[in-house]
């Protein structure tokens, strides 16, 4: 977290950049809008696979409680992945 003085200094530098080269500042703002606000579905797919594999390893080693917790994480990741896919269809 930036202090009030640091925020003012940062804003002053931003204002100088905008005044010096407005085209550069506009390209920076447009690139910033293109950045994804949430992880891609491939990130969730990898997390699901890793959770399932860890669950199987834990079950093989006879650790049922950690396996249950890891399978819960896999279910959460799959729910989030479905949520991301569903919200993209609405856009």
UniProtKB/TrEMBL annotation:
The chain crosses the membrane at residues 43-65. Keywords: Membrane, Transmembrane, Transmembrane helix. Pfam families: DUF3040. InterPro entries: DUF3040. It comes from Pseudonocardia asaccharolytica DSM 44247 = NBRC 16224. This is DUF3040 domain-containing protein.
């Amino acid at each position: 977290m930036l202090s009030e003085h640091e925020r003012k200094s940062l804003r002053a530098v931003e204002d100088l950049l905008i005044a010096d080269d407005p085209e550069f500042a506009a390209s920076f703002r447009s690139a910033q809008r293109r950045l994804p606000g949430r992880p891609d579905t491939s990130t969730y797919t990898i997390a699901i696979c890793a959770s399932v594999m860890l669950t199987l390893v834990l079950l093989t080693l006879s650790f049922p409680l950690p396996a249950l917790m890891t399978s819960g994480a896999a279910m959460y990741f799959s729910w989030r992945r479905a949520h991301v896919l569903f919200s993209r269809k609405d856009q």
